Every structure is written in structure tokens, then in C-alpha cells.
Amino acid sequence: MKTLKKLLTFGLVLSGIYAPKALATDVRGILSSDTTWEVEKSPYVVTGSVTVASGVTLTIEAGVEVKIDSGKGILVKGSLVAIGTDFQKILFSSNQASPAAGDWAYIKFTDGSVDAGFDGNGDYVSGSILKFCQVMYGGGEGASGGIVIDTASPYIEGCTVDNNNSAGIIATDPPNLQVKNTIISNTKRLGGSYDTSGGGLVISGGNATIGGNTISNNKAYQRAGGIILTDTTGQVLIDDNVITGNSAAGNQIGVGGILINRNRAKVTITNNQITANDGSSGYGWAGGGVKLASWQEEILVENNNISNNVFAGGWEDGAGIDIKGSSWEGNGDFALKVINNEISGNKGRGINIWGGNAITIEGNKIRNSSGYLGIGLYIRESSSNVIVKNNLVEGSQEYGIAVSNGSNHNISGNQIFQD
User: Fold this and answer.
1) Looking only at Cα atoms, what is the longest distance across the chain?
2) CA-based angle 133:134:136, to the nearest 5?
3) For a Cys staple, 348 with which of 76, 311, 324, 355, CB 3.0–4.6 Å?
4) pLDDT band at 38 (very low <50, low <70, confident <90, very high)
5) Residue 32 pLDDT more than 90?
6) Are 323 and 351 contacting, i.e. CB atoms less than 8 angstroms apart?
7) pTM of the shown model
8) How many Cβ atoms from other residues are within 10 Å of residue 84's Cβ?
9) Any idea what DSSP says for residue 392?
10) What distance in Å separates the CA atoms of residue 374 and residue 390, rounded to the nearest whole number?
11) Radius of gyration of the chain measured on its C-alpha atoms
């Protein structure tokens, strides 16, 4: 009897050790009731596109892998709650043996999806969230990005969005988008210089907080490689990000780092590292580090390091900061301030101003602007009421400060040193 008991116990131990884990869990279709994708049943293979219906929550546990077949995606009309940990991330990736950008479509949040909610301290409490997730190899089947947000505001924190086509994250009219402590990298652009494609983070309309992210090595056509904001209607804060190694080209637009165009509420750009980006265009809007264009409301650029960016070709625009108001939209009468930034080692003009009124350039250190356009600060035609004061300008290849046209400028208290 004792021998039999030992054998039975040994058999139970063996069965516990060698019990096979499910190879995969196939998922597709409409989720019509609350659903949890459990780590024990991972990986989940999306064999047909999954829709999270209105009023339904899909919860994905930490450590789950979601492998997505070619051309398929996840459409969120309810809530998607995907919260990983720093050590157990949630993976959304290709189901191909040799994955590549564009293998699957997107994670898309629709207008009807549940926005993230926050308490009085700004901490997440409810709604759609991607936290400690990896989103890789999406943007296929004509999708506009790996994560697509349509009049919605999921909370995105601590994620890696890498190797997607068309855009890393693209949002239209988000009511309160927050993207924090996330890596957005290696976005692939499609088409050619007349196409609009690529870029790390693309926001049109709405308002957003973009903080603590690393946005690197993204490529774009006809937009910015790093961040582009267009027609934003609420306030936007871009704070404490690293924006580096991005590039863009286009027939009309090619900005390496950040492009702000036609903002209709205040945009604040503070405490960022904007370095080693390059931009070029056939004609029109180019810029290396930051381009501020056709603003309709206040823009503040303060305490940033904007260095080693390259204006690679096109019209004579700026490598560090390019400011371009346009009189035909009557948009130059709002305050634009560039204050206390380190603007150094840019190949082209440190700051280039072409059009616009009520512009203040104050307390900046503009150093070592190089190349045949190597002017520290250049004020061109169609500009008026530009205040340039208390800046340090040194080591420019051509001129420290140059003014070719405009009216009613106030240039005072600057220190200019040339080699």
C-alpha cells in the first residue's frame, strides 16, 4: 500500500510538472460582454479583427502577448484596460515569423470609446488605458498609425511604440489626451515627398499633455519626424521629453523635431531635449529642431536644449527654431515667446523669423550656428514688433544677428561674440 501511495504521489507531481500549457488562444469578432485575456491563456492570436463593443470592457492582464494576423486589428468602442508592469509588459505585435512594420493594422479608439478618467491628483482611475505595453509592427492595411485615436482620450503611459508604419500614435480631436513616459521610435514613412506619412506623434485638433517621453529615430514625409500639432483647439503641454534623431522631408513640409501649425489655444514647450533632428523640403516649410507656423494663439518655448539639429535643404529656414507667421491667415498678432533656451551647434540658422508680430526672443544662448546659413538670429521680411533682448549669441559662422526687413523691432542688451 505504501508503495502504491508513493507511485500515485510521484505521478501527481509529474503531471503537475509536465502539464502542457495551451499553445495559443485564437480570438476574433465582436466582444459583447466584459472579457479578460488571462496570462495563463497567452498568447492570444487575433485571427480576425476584434471589436470591443460599446459598454464592454476588455481587460488584458500583465504579461499577456497578443499576436495579430496580417491586416487585422483591435477596434475599441467600449473600454480597453491593458495594464502591465515594468517587468511584465503586455505585447501587441505581429504574428509573422519575421515581423516587419505594417504586418497588422492598429489599435483604434473610436469616438464612442470610454476616455480615461483621473482623480484630483491627476492619477488614473478609470476608462481606457495602455500602461507598460509594447505596440510593434502595426500601421498596415492603410492604417494611419500603430495606435489610432479618433475623438477619444485613452491614457498612454510607460509604453513602447516601435517599428510601426505611417505614425506611431495619431490622434484626431482628442478631448484630453495624455501620453507620458513612453518610447515612440522607428516609425516608417510610406510613399514619397508628395505623400503625408510617418512621424512619432501626430495630433490634429483637441488638447494634450505630452510628458517624459523619448521620441527617436522616426521618419516622416510632409510633416514632422518627432511631434506634429495641427489646429489644436485646447491647451497643449510638451514637457520634459527627449526628441532626438528624427527626420522628415517633403515637397512642402519637412521638420525634424517638432512642428506646431495653426494652434488655436496655448502651446507650451518646456524642459525638452531636442537634438540631432533634421528636416528638408523641396520648397516651403523646413526646419531642423522646432518649427512654429501660422499660430493663432500664444506659444511659449522655454528652458529647452535645442542643439545639433540640421536644416538639410529647401527654402532658407531655421535649423534650431524656425518661426513662420503668414499674413494671409492674419495669425501673427498673438504672443510668441522664446525664452531661456540653449540653442547650440545647429547647422543653419539658430533662430529664423519670417513673418509674424509680437514675437519675443529673450535670454537665450545661441551658439555655434554653422553652415552657409550659419546666422545666430535672422529676422526676415513680413515681421514686425520683434523684441530681441538679453541673448548671448556667439560663434556663428556668418553673423550673430541679422535683420533684412520688417519694422518696429526692439533689439537691445544682447551680447554678440564672433570668432
Assistant:
1) 105
2) 150
3) 311
4) very high
5) yes
6) yes
7) 0.93
8) 21
9) E
10) 20
11) 25
